[in-house]
């Protein structure tokens, strides 16, 4: 009942899969199991506080009851099989017995007895339920949705990173791009009302906000900023970088980030570094940006000169009280050394950046710059210039302009 990998997270009932120690099988999502799981979970929490070992959930089911309508039901109680009105009467009696307080039992029992004689009076039909915004968590490697699924939800990333996957004819999925916290996805299939064209998989532990299709349609049509953001995202994501120049995509797909990445700019700043210390670091080292890390391994954020200037204008004379953690970009999107340069180029365009941090197994190992990818492409162009005119690839300039980020107020 305790969530794997977490010490203080517990789950019971329909939201969990709990193995029943009685038979070694997952517990059914029924009331009799959920009720006893709640009791067992509370006892285990009390045992944990007292330093005692927890106990596994074990319960021998009492039976099953199911109403099939028309005052008929089927039942299996302690090995006894019942059906028809008698089973329905037992089914009602079990639920009546579980109601709290004697007064409530009498009230509900009288209403049920009344309905046996007089039919129900339907004063109105049930209105359509409104979609709600919910939250979901995905472990690394879990799919948020897969290619071909019907579009039902719109997703907003609160924390973590997902990778967008593309596959052709059952081939191994290819990572198209990486999305980080603050991004959204799933809008294209919803707006076009067609099956998912790509799959989305959690690269790290991911927390998302999930919005139903009907609610998404209403909000996106009424809220101007969201409508504008969706339009920009659709234009950006629907236009393929190398639509007319597949050889450039093949070139970048064949080169891994690991081959072109550089060491992270030094020094790594501590989250507690003051505004003055950050300013001195920019002056002394002439870097365009710095990464922020408390332990020198785990990336916590990135700070640019633009971030520094904005923070300075707000801080005034209190620069000693302002720390980099308060104005850095926390947990920026990252790529892996094993990602292709094509994946990195799409991430550059998606986030309008000029550099991306590179992480391996959750640890910062370097950075990849847009200009390094461009240099790689130009070097390939020099090789193409040695070929006969009819075999040259007259597309590198277009590819670079397509890969370059759109104008942005950030100066990464």
Layout of helices and strands:
Elements: E1 19-20, E2 25-26, H1 31-49, E3 63-69, E4 72-77, E5 80-84, H2 85-98, H3 102-117, E6 133-138, E7 143-145, E8 153-159, E9 162-166, E10 174-179, E11 184-185, H4 187-192, E12 199-202, E13 206-212, H5 213-222, H6 224-238, H7 246-253, H8 257-260, H9 275-285, E14 289-292, E15 301-304, H10 305-315, E16 329-330, H11 341-351, E17 355-360, E18 363-369, H12 370-385, H13 396-403
Structural commentary:
- The radius of gyration is 29 Å and the shape is elongated.
- The chain folds into three domains: 63-117, no CATH class; 133-238, Jelly Rolls (Sandwich), CATH 2.60.120.10; 253-403, CBS-domain, CATH 3.10.580.10.
- The chain has a four-stranded antiparallel β-sheet.
- 36% of the residues lie in helices and 21% in strands.
- Residues 389-412 have low confidence and may be disordered.
- The chain is built from 13 helices and 18 strands.
- β4 (72-77) and β5 form a beta hairpin.
- It has helices at residues 31-49, 85-98, 102-117, 187-192, 213-222, 224-238, 246-253, 257-260, 275-285, 305-315, 341-351, 370-385, 396-403; strands spanning 19-20, 25-26, 63-69, 72-77, 80-84, 133-138, 143-145, 153-159, 162-166, 174-179, 184-185, 199-202, 206-212, 289-292, 301-304, 329-330, 355-360, 363-369.
- By secondary structure, it is of the alpha+beta class.
């Amino acid at each position: 009942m305790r969530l794997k990998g977490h010490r203080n997270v517990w789950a019971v009932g329909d939201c969990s899969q709990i193995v029943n120690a009685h038979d070694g099988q997952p517990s059914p999502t029924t009331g009799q199991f959920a009720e006893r799981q709640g009791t067992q979970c509370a006892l285990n929490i009390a045992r944990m506080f007292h330093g005692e070992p927890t106990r596994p959930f074990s319960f021998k089911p009492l039976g099953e009851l199911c109403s099939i309508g028309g005052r008929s039901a089927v039942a299996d109680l302690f090995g006894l099989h019942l059906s028809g009105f008698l089973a329905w009467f037992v089914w009602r009696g079990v639920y009546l017995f579980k109601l709290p307080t004697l007064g409530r039992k009498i009230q509900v029992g009288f209403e049920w007895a009344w309905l046996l004689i007089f039919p129900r009076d339907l004063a109105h039909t049930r209105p359509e339920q409104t979609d709600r915004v919910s939250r979901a968590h995905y472990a690394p490697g879990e799919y948020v949705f897969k290619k071909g699924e019907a579009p039902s939800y719109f997703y907003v990333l609160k924390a973590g990173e997902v990778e967008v996957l593309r596959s052709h004819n059952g081939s191994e999925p290819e990572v198209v791009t990486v999305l980080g916290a603050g991004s959204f996805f799933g809008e294209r299939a919803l707006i076009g009302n067609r099956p998912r064209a790509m799959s989305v998989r959690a690269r790290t532990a991911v927390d998302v906000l999930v919005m139903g299709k009907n609610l998404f349609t209403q909000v996106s049509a009424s809220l101007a900023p969201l409508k504008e953001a969706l339009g920009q995202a659709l234009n950006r994501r629907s236009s393929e970088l190398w639509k007319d120049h597949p050889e450039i995509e093949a070139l970048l797909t064949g080169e891994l980030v690991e081959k072109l990445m550089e060491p992270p700019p030094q020094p790594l700043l501590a989250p507690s570094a003051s505004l003055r210390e950050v300013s001195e670091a920019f002056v002394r080292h002439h870097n365009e940006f710095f990464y922020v890390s408390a332990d020198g391994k785990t990336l916590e954020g990135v700070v640019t000169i633009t971030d520094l200037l904005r923070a300075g204008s707000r801080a005034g004379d209190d620069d000693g009280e302002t720390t980099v953690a308060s104005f850095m970009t926390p947990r920026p999107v990252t790529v892996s050394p094993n990602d292709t340069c094509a994946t990195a180029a799409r991430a550059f365009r998606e986030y309008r950046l000029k550099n991306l941090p590179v992480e391996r197994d959750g640890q910062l190992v370097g950075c990849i710059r847009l200009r390094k990818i461009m240099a790689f492409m130009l070097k390939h162009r020099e090789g193409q210039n040695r070929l006969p005119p009819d075999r040259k690839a007259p597309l590198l300039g277009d590819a670079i302009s397509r890969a370059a980020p759109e104008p942005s107020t950030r100066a990464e």
